[in-house]
Design brief:
With about 575 residues, this protein is an alpha/beta fold. Helix content is about 50%, strand content about 10%. It binds pyridoxal-5'-phosphate and 2-acetamido-2-deoxy-beta-D-glucopyranose (NAG) (2 copies). It holds the Pfam family Pyridoxal_deC.
Length: about 575
């Protein structure tokens, strides 16, 4: 057969197909023929959204979410749920509301003059005793009126009136910042050959801000390097809530991935979530909930092989791990000496022993930071829609969603909500920069000072861990690497134990998955380790003998929040709670 005859047989087949198809379709109305593809298109679209949702939230959560929203359509159900929710919110707020009576809401017509100091003293006296009683919270040791505390007070008063926006005038402050950044970087591998010798960074107002900056820089860096415009990041569920905030502020899709049986980041699970839009993965050393270090080296390999960023959260561990390793504790690699680590956040105001409001963000090299177009004054540039007033007046924006006790329950409210949040604004105290500088240089806080502190705190932690293990009703969650011990119980309601500890003046943190509480051990706890264990034993015995919630306790709320199948409800609850407190 030649070419033209095969063409004519093809056209014959096509014509007979056309004839039979047309005669078959002629039994349908033209309108139907028009609408059918349209419906299929819509159906395909719906199916795709459905599968996307399931991929994002899991089958169980999607079905539950769907079920919950359908149930709420039944008349009366929504109002019933809202009433119940309001009851919980009222209970959570009952404390705060009654205390607000008599609070000033307007400027007084005549000033108090120096009497204001008396007033402030009076109010300060009413604060609860935190000395030695709070998990984390205050990391500096000793009494508030002497030692390192009073040194800080004096340093603060010396620089309280400088203005760091004018570094040409206040050159000392610029020098202090640069030195604190350099000293901290050196502690975290910047001088090792494998770091590349290019590590740079800046001071910030806290771990949250350091994380926000690192995430934003990673996003912009990946955009310029790989052209990613619909960025996604992957974090273990144990990571701090600052990443949720970053995802919302900077429009990044966030994947929270379960941890492995040792409560560490599950590298394989993270790998499964990597796609062409992934900009960043995160590891903590250690994570805040259980004090366990993620496998940073494996995460580094993963990040390098995909050419994406890896942020290491050293907010808690930065000023402990280098010294703990020196003391002989088994600490796996966690800093810039690890290939693939692109940025690090480290809190000077935690184990660095500076006052609250100082942290550092470090980048492996200038490339990563440079693309991020925030100007020199990091704190003023980072929020993409800060209010003009705050920018103009040179304030640090310091978002703190005040729900720390239930921190690990928090699904952070979305950014629409944020615009209505009270912003706690601290003027950017150069003092804070200064303090960390001072403390780092002062003889007792040179590297030997940190080494000694770490030794003391690690030993106190090991004693607490051993004491808890000796209480047969309790178990320690995972194997704590540092100075945090999380513990739960298979036989008691651990949140009831927590309520009893609260009634004894302790402030511990409640966690879920599994239900547990933790103590973040600081220098403040060193003298009271045995008191803590005695109180804990007593509380466990009380709960064992009289199980059931104590009046005014939070156990029922924590318990319920842990059990709530629909995470959306927990989020709603928290939004209502916070909305009511401002
Ligand atoms: C404390 C902490 C942060 C940041 O908290 P800030 O209160 O904003 O300083 C981030 N990650 C971890 C692991 C932390 O412990
Ligand atoms: C941030 O760091 C860079 C280099 O380390 C420095 O030039 C800059 O002044 C720092 N920013 C601020 C606000 O100090
Ligand atoms: C964000 O929160 C606001 C206020 O609570 C709510 O109206 C809005 O629907 C929320 N948006 C999303 C995307 O969840």
């Amino acid at each position: 057969m030649d070419y033209s005859s095969s063409l004519s047989s093809l056209s014959f087949h096509f014509n007979s197909f056309r004839a039979s198809a047309n005669s078959f379709l002629s039994q349908y109305e033209p309108l139907l023929l028009l609408l059918a593809p349209l419906f299929s298109l819509i159906l395909a679209h719906l199916l795709r959204s459905f599968f996307n949702l399931i991929h994002e939230r899991g089958l169980k959560a999607s079905l539950l979410g769907f079920l919950m929203s359908s149930v709420k359509l039944i008349p009366g159900v929504k109002s019933y749920i809202d009433r119940e929710k309001q009851k919980v919110v009222d209970k959570m707020q009952s404390d705060g509301k009654s205390k607000r009576e008599g609070w000033r809401t307007e400027l007084p017509s005549t000033g108090l003059g120096t009497l204001v100091l008396e007033k402030m003293k009076e109010e300060k006296r009413k604060d609860v005793a935190w000395q030695g009683k709070c998990s984390g919270t205050v990391y500096i040791g000793g009494s508030e009126i002497d030692g390192h505390f009073s040194l800080i007070n004096e340093a603060c008063s010396m620089f309280a009136h400088t203005n760091p926006l004018h570094l040409d005038v206040f050159q000392s402050v610029g020098r202090f910042e640069a030195e604190v950044v350099a000293m901290t970087a050196a502690l975290l591998g910047s001088q090792e050959k494998s770091s590349g010798g290019q590590v740079c960074g800046n001071m910030t107002s806290g771990g949250t801000e350091s994380i926000l900056l690192a995430v934003k820089s990673s996003r912009d860096y990946m955009k310029s390097k790989k052209g990613i415009t619909r960025p996604e990041m992957i974090i273990p569920v144990s990571a701090h809530s600052a990443y949720d905030k970053a995802a919302q502020y900077f429009n990044i899709k966030l994947w929270r991935v379960a941890v492995n049986k040792d409560f560490q980041a599950d590298v394989k699970a993270i790998r499964r979530h990597i796609n062409k839009n992934t900009i960043l993965i995160v590891g903590s050393a250690p994570g805040f909930p259980h004090g366990i270090i993620d496998p940073i080296e494996e995460l580094g390999q993963l990040a390098s092989s995909f050419g994406i960023c890896l942020h290491v959260d050293l907010c808690l561990g930065g000023f402990v791990l280098p010294f703990a390793r020196e003391l002989g504790y088994p600490i796996p690699p966690f800093d810039f000496s690890v290939k693939g680590v692109s940025s690090i956040s480290v809190d000077v105001h935690k184990y660095g022993l500076a006052p609250k409001g100082t942290s550092i963000v470090l980048y492996r090299d200038h490339e990563i930071r440079k693309v991020s177009h925030w100007p020199g004054h990091k704190v003023l540039g980072i929020f993409e829609a800060p209010t003009e007033y705050l920018v103009e007046s040179g304030f640090v924006l310091f978002f703190r969603i005040s729900c720390d006790p239930i921190h690990q329950f928090v699904a952070v409210p979305n950014s629409t909500y944020l615009s209505g949040l009270p912003m706690i604004c601290f003027p950017f105290l150069p003092v804070l920069v200064l303090n960390s500088w001072y403390m780092a240089n002062q003889w007792s806080f040179c590297s030997t000072g940190y080494l000694e502190n770490t030794k003391t705190i690690m030993e106190a932690t090991k004693r607490i861990q051993k004491g808890i293990e000796e209480i047969s009703e309790l178990y320690v969650v995972g194997r704590p690497d540092m100075t945090i011990v999380a513990f739960g119980s298979n036989v008691l309601d651990i949140f009831e134990v927590n309520d009893l500890m609260t009634s004894k003046g302790w402030h511990l943190n409640a966690l879920q998955r599994p239900n547990s509480i933790h103590i973040c051990v600081t220098l403040q706890h060193v003298p009271v380790v045995e008191d803590f264990l005695t109180d804990l034993k007593e509380s466990v015995n009380t709960v064992k003998e009289n199980p059931g919630p104590i009046s005014g306790g939070l156990a029922p709320i924590y318990g319920a929040a842990g059990k709530m199948p629909d995470r959306g409800m927990v989020q709603d609850l928290l939004v209502d709670y916070m909305d009511g407190t401002c």
